[in-house]
Automatic annotation (TrEMBL), chains A, B:
<dbReference type="InterPro" id="IPR001353">
    <property type="entry name" value="Proteasome_sua/b"/>
</dbReference>
<dbReference type="InterPro" id="IPR029055">
    <property type="entry name" value="Ntn_hydrolases_N"/>
</dbReference>
<dbReference type="Pfam" id="PF00227">
    <property type="entry name" value="Proteasome"/>
</dbReference>
<protein>
    <submittedName>
        <fullName>Peptidase</fullName>
    </submittedName>
</protein>
<dbReference type="InterPro" id="IPR016545">
    <property type="entry name" value="UCP009120_prtse"/>
</dbReference>
């Protein structure tokens, strides 16, 4: 499995993904699930992936190919589409096509493969937007009422987000919140694993503002994790029983 | 869905269940999922249920019937079985039988129905034991390494248990922990709902030590919930960002 979370806030977009993929429990690998596309100063798009690696890799390969054509087609290149909504539609259509292709092959073995994506970004002249794209290619969008989207193993890390995230949350606090949400997931579910990829896109910057990989041995993440554990235990001790 | 959690601790057993059942989203009802059987001073057994109501009600009815026979059969009555392991075997076999009966009916409609149970208790002369019984009737047992078992919507409430529960946890702290675990689940998942049923069985008491229903309007639970939210937000604010 996977855990990816995206926040759409007044000040910008914060995205975090893990990197664990597994085919069964005895075949665990590290694959990037965070992909960025940008035309700095004009447009920035980030895509996070969950689900079958064969589907997500082929989808990303097709999307990338379309952006690199000599005469890019704005109905196929996400770097040239006229709006973020069109970007989501292109990605949704590509995902649906790939899913269909792969499923035809797999149906002979009575197997299936699906994937979900989170797509976030902004183009000059438009607002920041963030979408969750379903395997069938349809999608939903983050709003002020629901400023975060999750794919993969989303349940462990949802309570902290439900409690602390609002559209007004600062980018710094938001980074902390997604890391703590991930930390809860890492502790409780083996199928989500380090390293992590963190991306921040500040509003109206039209570029990746910060991007970093947090490795398994990252001492500051380990400190954050310990501090959160200690703080939770303290909080728990202080609460009076019923 | 449902959320039920059971802790097997050095000082005793703590069990908490919600009461929401739903057939679709437009048909929500309250049904008890916590059932106790006891022969005070000799034996106490608690069963929590998750899954299809038709399966769990029929299973409980058959188990109850077997305990009320004039000449109870120790291979069928959980109040007369010679050990907690035998109790788990009787319950597992009953659940598997009921599941098979119901599934034969439902298979004509291409539907299926399953249920899982948590069974905990102690008989005089034996240790406290707690089992998670799968729809097929097989089961696993809580141990010192893994002193809690969950059924239903278990993911939201797992991180807090992973962090604070050890076999040495006091019964008072354990009550608090299961209530906070439930609180996180209630907030993040509509299919889990108030009221709650809490049962505590102290070690070597061979009776239900405390049993209470916590209603939706319970002011002390609301306070606990608010205090935990505040404590979590405080803890979150205090943590330094990466």
């Amino acid at each position: 499995m996977t855990y990816c979370v995206g926040l759409l806030l007044d000040q910008g977009i914060v995205l975090l993904s893990d990197t664990r993929t597994n085919a069964g429990l005895d075949n665990i690998s590290i694959y990037r699930k965070m992909f960025t596309f940008s035309n700095d100063g004009e447009r920035v798009i980030a895509i996070m992936t969950a689900g079958s690696l064969s589907v997500t890799q082929t989808t990303l390969a097709r999307l990338t190919e379309a952006t690199e054509e000599d005469d890019p087609d704005e109905t196929r290149s996400i770097l040239h589409a006229p709006s973020m909504l069109k970007v989501a539609q292109i990605i949704g259509a590509t995902l649906a096509d790939v899913t269909t292709d792969v499923s035809i092959k797999l149906s002979r073995m009575n197997q299936s493969a699906t994937a979900s994506l989170i797509v976030a970004g902004q183009r000059r002249g438009g607002p920041m937007r963030m979408f969750l794209i379903y395997p069938e290619g349809n999608f939903i969008e983050a709003t002020r009422d629901t400023p975060f989207l999750q794919i993969g193993e989303h349940k462990y890390g949802k309570p902290i987000l439900d409690r602390v995230i609002t559209p007004e949350t600062s980018l710094e606090d938001a980074e902390k919140a997604v890391l703590l949400s991930m930390d809860s997931t890492l502790r409780s579910n083996l199928s989500v694993g380090m390293p992590l990829d963190l991306v921040v896109i500040e509003k109206d910057s039209f570029r990746i503002s910060r991007q970093r990989r947090i490795e398994a041995e990252d001492e500051r993440f380990a400190q954050l994790s310990r501090a959160w554990s200690d703080a939770l235990r303290d909080a728990y001790q202080k609460i009076e029983s019923l």
